[in-house]
Structure formats: structure tokens, C-alpha cells
Amino acid sequence: MTEPAPERLAGTVELASIRLPSVERGAATVAIAAEVGRGETGRIRISRLPNDGPAAVERFAAEAVAPGATLCTYPRHPAIAFPNDTGLPEFERVARRLEKWCRATHRAAIRRRQLDFYLAEFAFRYNHRVEPQGLRFYRLLQGALAAAPRPARSLVGGTGQWAGS
Predict the structure, then answer these.
(1) pTM for this one?
(2) 17 within 8 A of 79, measured Cβ to Cβ
(3) From residue 104, how far is each of 4, 17, 123 by CA, in Å?
(4) Which residue, 7, 24, 31, 92, could crosslink 17 as a Cys pair with Cβ 3.0–4.6 Å?
(5) In this predicted model, what pLDDT tens digit does every residue of 29-75 receive, in sequence order?
(6) Least confident of 32-36, 65-69, 122-126, 156-160
(7) Which of 32, 35, 30, 28 shows the shortest CA–CA distance to 12?
(8) Apex CA 17: angle with CA 12 and CA 20, to 5°?
(9) Distance in angstroms (rounded) separating the CA atoms of residues 67 and 89
(10) Which of 143, 142, 92, 96 is nearest to 117 (CA)?
(11) Where are the domains of the chain?
């Protein structure tokens, strides 16, 4: 569900990171960038970070946000557990929706090895939420045809075990 080379976010972008508690063996640090415009969230970019350090957030920002965009960030330590009143309402909206989606859809049982796939699915669904269902399917099919083939083991954690086998 990931675009091969997604267009970077432009305009005003809110960016911060959170600790996503729904991942096996504790939480994972996830960075979220959200375009702000016309009273609602535009497109988002989301990625797992290797650590809580500012260098990791800066690398994500360089990949996700276009040069010349206005970047709004949280002034304190970037990896915070669902901050109250960060002053970044669009970021908070996306972060809360991500956490709720992980709990409700995946029963808070996300494996660390598949986290990147789950984040890509969430971003795809979020970015295409206002499109008609047929167009979303078309975009998904476009991405599937453009993607390189992957062995099933890379998707299920390398065990070669399928559910029910």
C-alpha cells in the first residue's frame, strides 16, 4: 500500500513523534507529519523511527516534507506518549486515530516485524479516505502492479508458518 516515491508534503506541516503502545514487547517510536489546510488534515506521512533522538526525526522530516514547507513541531522531547495540548491539532488527530485503529482493528497485537506494513496501510487509508471506493481500489491496484515481487516469508515474519497450518 506504499507509493514507490511518495510526493513530499508541502504548505504547512505539523510534525512530531509518539510512542505507539500497541506493538509487541512494549511501544515503538513513530513519526507523523500531517499537512494542515482548510480546517482539516490533508495528506500524511508516517514512519517508524529507530530511536527517540532528534536526528531520527530530522531524517524523517527531510524525507517526508518538501523544502520550503512551513514546519510546526512540538517544542519538547519529540517522543511523547500522546501529548495533551501540543498545539498541533492535526498531528494529535492523526496520532489518536492511529492509536485507536491499532487497538480496534488489530487488537493491539501488532508485531514489530510487520509494523512498517501496518503504518503503510494506515497512511494509504488515511490519505485516500475521501476518494470513492472504486478509485481507492484502482490506486491500490496501481501500487501493487508497480511494486516488486516479495516472498511471502518477508510478509509474515520469516517463519514460513501460515495461520491454520
Answers:
(1) 0.78
(2) yes
(3) 28, 21, 16
(4) 31
(5) 999 999 998 767 789 999 999 987 889 989 999 999 999 999 988 76
(6) 156-160
(7) 35
(8) 135
(9) 22
(10) 143
(11) 12-147
Residue 149 carries which side chain, given as an amino acid letter? P
3 state SS of 97: helix
Quote the strand ranges of the chain, DSSP E.
Answer: 12-20, 28-37, 40-48, 70-73, 79-80
pLDDT the model gives residue 162: 38
Beta bridge partners, 34, equal 14, 44
Q: Exposed, middle or buried: residue 91 (CB in 10 Å: 0-12, 13-18, 19+)?
A: buried
Single-letter code of the amino acid located at 159? T
In angstroms, the CA 17 to CA 44 distance is 13
